[in-house]
Queue: 4 jobs
Job 1
Amino acid sequence: MVQAIIIEDEIHAFDHLNNIIINNYSDKINIIGTADSVKSGIELIEFNNPELVFLDIQINGGTGFDILNHFNEKTNFEIIFTTGLIDYKEKAMDYFAFYYLNKPIRESQFIEVIEKYLSRKSRFNLENYLAFKHQVENDNNTIAIPTGAGDFKILKLDNITYCEAEGSYTTFHTLDKKTYLTSHNLAKFENLLAQSTFSRIHRSTLLNLKHVKEYSSSDGKVILTNGETINVSTRNKSGFIKMLKLMNYSLD
């Protein structure tokens, strides 16, 4: 049986989560303690050495990040975040392979997350955590891309001109014309950046519309703010023009 604790400062949210656990996993998950603040959460983890922690991000005395920072590399438990963060940040959590439950927690959502956890029984990954934390704290302004061997490169979204597919890999192109290769495919980043200014202009290209300087509809070429030129496919032309008009209040 998995030994778990809940760190949550909203009584209603705690009761709801605890009841879902009792109703669905009383034979697999044992809640051995609860806390409602950074201080009590740290003490609870140190005393009980749990396998799994249900952790609210915003709690009394700080954030769930403060608790994880206290343990740093000594962390040997898995985290399931319980959070009200949605949209882009939810996708960021999924991208960095953290388990999460969006409030208000749905029973079906809980079962899906727990089944994933039980099948993997993984442990806390420091590199993924740091990347995820950076995503949340920077409020959609940056992206942390995995570059291999547990390393990440933090890029400002405004400094990315476009992302280019290379088979199952993706290359990020930046304003200073540097490139960064990552082993995730372009579709993954398209989903991750869905709430930002990036738009698919070709099956192999995801463009940051902020860096469009000129566009020629006759040959489908886009000139970027750093002088680079890329192509818009015939298939994506109408959608691309529509996005340009929406962003730039075209009178056409």
Job 2
Amino acid sequence: MRKQNQRFLPSGRRNFLKTSAFLAAGALLIPKLGRSATPATRVKDIGIQLYTVRTEMLADPVGTLKKVAGVGFKELESARSDKGNYYGLKPKEIRKICDDLGMRLRSGHIHVDNDWQKSLEEATETGQNYIISAVLPSKGQTADHYKESAEAFNKLGEECKKAGLHFGYHNHDSEFAADNGTVLYDVLLKYTDPSLVTMEMDLGWVVAAGHDPFQYFNQYPGRFPLWHLKDMDKVQRRSVEFGQGKVDIKGLLQHAKQAGMKHFFLEQEEYAHSAFESIQLDYDYLAKLNY
């Protein structure tokens, strides 16, 4: 259609066109102005590794679990102690206590030793999902040893799978040493079967060892269903209350989906305050965090 010369249009027609153009331009702006910002994600189902309150658990496991629930924690991970895998409690006993308190025992650290079969049976009784080894056999810091360990973990993973559990491994900082330029933790990742071996990444120890968790999330997406979430003083190489160290807690949570994270557990090994004062500070920090 040939363009009309607006100068020769009736005044009513010119006003109509101006109004239409204004409304059209406004329509383009309305979605942007009216669109609400994406709501920030809040942390939920905050978990705790019971090693954080290990002294209290050994002295009074039932009372300590009640206090942990009172803080607001919803998920638990146990740890091997002088009184067994559940601080002296029987598997069915800790399961009932958790149920009554509105918590869920998700995971437990055990030793791969002569009590392995017992640990496996106890884990199934508690109803937990994961059974985690936090140590390698003491055969040296070599790539060959880590490859052998990975192969052994695959076999343990098969046993756990038959029992309805997931086997996993938890790192410290020693796994990030190198053998002839190869980072030993990378050997575990390369030779463990992801369908059989869960990697529980202790984010604080990764940072303390001078490595980047985000790099691992990029290189091995989905490989880290479990986390130990902690803040660290990199100079003193000790855990501190959230917000006091050098770990990017918010940034890590923003990459939870990329990492494959399903559950995380607060773990603090040292305290500026008492154990319960520290975990209250940590819980409050996470509960207020938007990411």
Job 3
Amino acid sequence: MTSPFDLTGKVALVTGGNGGIGLAIAEGLGQAGCAVAIAGRNPGKNAAALAALTAQGIRAAASIADVVEEAECRRLVGETLDRFGRLDILVNNAGTNIRKQPQDYSAAEFRLLIDINLTSTFMMATAAYPAMRDAGGGKIINIGSMTSLFGASFAAPYGASKGGVVQLTKALASAWARDGIQVNAILPGWIDTDLTRQGDGITPELRERIQARTPAGRWGQPGDLAGAAVFLASADSDFVTGTAIPVDGGYSAQG
């Protein structure tokens, strides 16, 4: 019997797919049978991620791209179509953060976070839209954040950008449902990645407080996001669109 989450014959493009959450999602999609194109700005990380995917028997490709640039977004979609002949799934995972108090951000830093986290999501989605429309449908999965749901004093522009991702998700879902395209978002909680392990303002004391506040009793792992992504990429989510699913061990459910 075929698995309801079988993605055999499908092609996915994952931005920021060369590490952390993006690579874990790419692996999950690939293990479900999908061919995967990953995109990132770091050639070395791209090569390592591609090797990890192909070692698992996943049909994969990697591209260097800066998704802040509209032309790069369109080139990236075109390269995926040239390599694999189709594009069924887009995962908008590329993103970054700068943690400061609101009064300490420059206007340039604010614009940078909006461009990388939100504007690139819009440009990648609109670049992928014609191919998905012409094929009769597709899946777009946008990576938001639990800061889409509540305020964080140390991440005002990041939270604004990720809140925008959720509203953009709803708008695109409404606009493109007639084309058979479902658009949904995943909202990661505190995930143990290279970025959080390297610090970025996350002290050992803060790590302990986060874990204590999380009902699941632990930090998330990148692989924890893969199941939600496979579901949203599969035919079993064809009547699910415009949603934002927290994957945070219950952190955002706490009052």
Job 4
Amino acid sequence: MNEFLIGLQFLTRIFVVKQSVWTEKSFGESVKYFPAVGAVLGIICAVLVGAINLLNLPLFTGAVGFASLIILTGGIHCDGLMDSADGLFSGREREKILEIMKDSRAGSFGVVSMILVAAIEISTLIELVLLSTWFLCTAIYSAPIIGRLMMVVTIGAFPYARETGMGKAFAQFTTRRTIIFATCETILFLLPLNFIDPIFFLCAAAASLVALIVTWKFASFSTEKIGGVTGDVYGAVTTLVEMFVPITFLLIGNFLR
């Protein structure tokens, strides 16, 4: 339970119990509970967006759906996307890329990447509003769960690029068993969708496959450039997956409609 609370506090702005002293072991072992953190975020966002959708304002609902997750996480993963884009697409050598990624200032690649993700995700959510409230809510619920599973996969399957860093503890204590645990956890959280309508579970399964492909491609690209992944890449993967999950729901929903 302590590791879950650590993960919840680190990945979100939700504080159940204020913790200021973490051991490296408990910090690293919190990784296996990341999908559970995603489930908390997914429930909050789905309920919020479902309620707002009652106002019959699709543009506003789509914008709130995108903004709610950023607000709940403090934009930590968006920052990772922007830093990763600035560094990995800079065309520089490894050490310079790592230096750029560590710089807190946003560059042109980072800004453009975030604008593109925001535009695509908001427009996707608006289309989901028009398609079905249930498709909208189940997509928003599933996205942060699958996104954090893919963060676990990235941490466990790819080497950490820096000698030191906050993500080092994650990588040090994440094993194949951690990935298996997080995968079973994800299935457990997504399985209730099957009782609402099997099509929603099918969408979540398809979205997980798409997410795995996106994760593997992006993490492999990072490994090719800098010899591994960093905390920024963890955030970038999560942000990209949270964009592709609603897209998958939308495509399948339109196909079956």
